[in-house]
Amino acid sequence: MRPIWKQIIIKLTSRRKKNSAEKNRYSDYQRAKAYREFIISLKRNIKDFILITIGIFSASFGFKGFLLSNHFIDGGATGISLLISALTDIPLYMLLIGINIPFIFLGYKILGKQFAFKTALSISGLALCVATVPFPDVTQDNLLVAIFGGFFLGAGIGLSVRGGAVIDGTEVLAIFLSRKFGTTLGDIITLINVIIFLTAAYFLSIEIALYSMITYLSASKTLDFIIEGIEEYIGVTIVAVHNDDIRKMIINKLGRGVTVYSGKRGYGKNGESKATDIIYTVITRLELNKLNTEIEKIEPEAFVVMNSVKDTKGGMIKKRPLH
Question: Is residue 130 located within the same domain as residue 258?
């Protein structure tokens, strides 16, 4: 039988060899890739946490600083919560959780586990903030309450969406119904809000319902602003004979990047086609007039298609300095 000290040395040596073998199973590239993915996920989670936290406090301020004292409501699940809170003695924080629970399960079914987990934490955080954090009652002016209450509420919802969660589950329901019945999200959300505001007009008053519609418009515009960003982007597709001149113009005069892909132009009575390069670029709405002017200078008959772009990432989104 070996002495104890020899057994310890053998065990340590075999463990070191095993660790070395495990380490050699992965290349430097694989380890670097795993590390990079970990850092990206960590940064994303920290960013999402900050956005959702700010969103929770913003929405809570909209609730307690403006809407609750005047019994104004909003659209969606938050509007339903505010309406029931105004008609009953049930605290708002309990309603926020109770009404959104079905939407959390629906979000798990449609959008996955991570989304449902973030949404559950966000709604719980909002309810906790509404229940425990004191906010001053800012103003009693109905118009200011409607506008700024909607602004802070919309900003809170928008920041939460930016963080990968929702604190109002109506959009999850709208996605589910649109997939089931083939209707658009906008139609479903509009129908839900019409029902909410008609109910408010019946049980509260027509005046409160009208002010609540202003709240909803303010919140939805702020939500769009937060999600889509300060600059609204436009995707532009250009089919032209002098495509190379247009490409150089976009790069040199507008400072934007372009994507060039091969296609065919159809023309004539017989539908004859001819190979051509198609140009695609993304610009802001403020630059649209300048682009159209420069294209007209080069080729007035160029075929130009424009469409709104909700968000952009990567590439030459920010303008490069022009020389």
Answer: no
